[in-house]
Amino acid sequence: MARRTLAVLGSSxxxxxxxxxxxxxxxxxxxxxxxxxxxADLTAAELAAGLARLHDAPxxxxxxxxxxxxxxxxxxxxxxxxxxxxxNLPALPDxxxxxxxxxxxxxxxxxxxxxxxxxxxxPHVE
Length: 126
Prior knowledge:
By secondary structure, this protein is mostly helical. It is built from eight helices and no strands. Helix 4 packs across helix 5. The longest helix is centred in the N-terminal third of the chain and has 18 residues. The chain is flat and about 50 Å long. The N and C termini lie far apart (47 Å). The relative contact order is 0.08.
């Protein structure tokens, strides 16, 4: 879905076309937008509606994820979606899952390739 979105936006929005000419930049754009689409749980019909509504927007309107999302789901639909999500909150992780996440974060931060980018903080500094 992100590839189809890029194909349409790249042909109509100049800065997106310019920013995604480089294959690496295009892959990053696709990855970020694919995550946004997945997290927002947009359907193919909502994406098509959003792309259709973008053509009605003024030509000088900057198009980013938030503007595109508002075209896919108008405010009244977003309010109903928010209410539905409030009613169906995911369960909190159990203690074992929390501990696995903590251990994974500790392993990542102890990696010498990453530690050179982390600020040095003394344990006695508040």
